[in-house]
Amino acid sequence: xxxxxxxxxxxxxxxxxxxxxxxxxxxxxxxxxxxxxxxxxxxxxxxxxxxxxxxxxxxxxxxxxxxxxxxxxxxxxxxxxxxxxxxxxxxxxxxxxxxxxxxxxxxxxxxxxxxxxxxxxxxxxxxxxxxxxxxxxxxxxxxxxxxx
Length: 148
What we know:
By secondary structure, the protein is mainly alpha-helical. It is built from 5 helices and 2 strands.
């Protein structure tokens, strides 16, 4: 059990870096590499076509995580845990990857567009980092560790 969840965490971390790199390229392409850029205002400057394309990337990410959970999990409960666990590592390390690559976000209070589906979710970066960290801790305590 621990080996499986360690590998799932590694997958989430790898996926986070790939997504971080993509976001760096997107930010460069639309001129938003300044770490102090307000993402709420920046979103208004992004052409609708690019927003729609980005929404398909987000949907594909959820499909990938769901597919992984379906293939790895033996029961519905385990599939849910696999999805949440991998999602949490992906989300947490996405911000770590962005910080290493372009020093963004400059602060945990920096506002980010967390997700675009079905409409933009905007919050300070500390919120998804906190939720992801709590998810990892809870799943480790309630699901992964008792079986070891």
